[in-house]
Amino acid sequence: MKHILYTAIISLLIFSSCKKDNTNEYNSNNKGELSIEFDNIVGGENLALNTGSYTNSSGETYKITTLKYFISNISLGKADGTTYTVPQNDSYFLIEEGNEDADHASIEVPEGEYKTLTFMVGIDSLRNTKDVSERTGALDPAGTANGMYWGWNSGYIFFKIEGTSTASTADGNMFMYHIGGFGGYSSSTINNIKTVTLNLEPGGTPKVHQAKETNIHLMVDIAKLFDNKSHISIKEHAAVMFDAYSTTIADNYATMFRHDHTEN
Ligand SMILES: [Cu+2]
After folding, report:
1. What's the gap in Å between 37 CA and the centre of ligand 1?
2. Is the full-model pTM beyond 0.85?
3. Which residues share a beta bridge with 198?
4. Which of 153, 145, 147 is nearest to 129 (CA)?
5. Beta bridge partners of 155
6. Which of 250, 251, 249, 256 is nearest to 218 (CA)?
7. Quick one: which of 41, 79, 84, 219 has the fewest CB in 10 Å?
């Protein structure tokens, strides 16, 4: 009798713990809210616009007054090897430091557990040249994307940072990097479109359900903009826009994204 009772209790415990851990009950016909948070930092510090003072490996001290970049063409990979690609029209976001409404990308994805996250830093070449009627929302040059579009080039500025540094000999000690270039109409034109893929497993995989919101928290380390594959000197390059050196800066910033954790 005692033995039967123990067995019953043990199976009850096993049953309830299995039920609790069972996150395989996904219905891929349902969609859940998923946000991707872009938390800008400099080295180990939170980025403080205008007030924070930082030093690059060239020994140059700088402050940041503007930081904006486009994230687009988001897709997510599952363990079974399949990929969910967010419908392209819903997949353009302008991230802006200092704007609480613009520190994340909000998307809807089918229920499931996702292991990789892929996105573009910048705007795909086709969309750059589409009619303005197909460049609304984050891409509206007369609205959200004001100051992020080169009319002469029919192309977006993918990444914009502005600030001051005593190392700069420009007016007001300004420095500015406006990086774009979608490849243009010939293969010889600058192409700074970058695609980033992050493995979400070490920091925790997002488990998306219709009934809840899930957040992928990324760290975006601006220190890597200056020091990574190349060391960028503000003194030598105080203003970089549509020129050959922009590819060096884009190569650096393509590696500044890191998955920190997931809020499930
Ligand atoms: Cu978080």
Report:
1. 8
2. yes
3. 117
4. 153
5. 150
6. 256
7. 79
Distance 203 CA to ligand 1 centre (A): 11
CA atoms within 13 Å, Cβ hemisphere of 263: 11
Span 152-193, pLDDT tens digits: 877 999 999 999 999 999 999 999 999 999 987 666 689 999
Helix/strand/coil for 173: helix
Question: Which amino acid, residue 80?
Answer: D
Cα(217) to ligand 1 centroid in Å equals: 5
Structure tokens at 162: 């502005």
Cα separation of 82 and 51, whole Å? 44
- Taking the C-alpha atoms of residue 33 and residue 31, their distance in angstroms, rounded to an integer, is 7
- Whether the Cβ atoms of residue 159 and residue 196 lie closer than 8 Å to each other: no
244 CA from centroid of ligand 1 (Å): 37
Strands 174-180 and 239-240: parallel
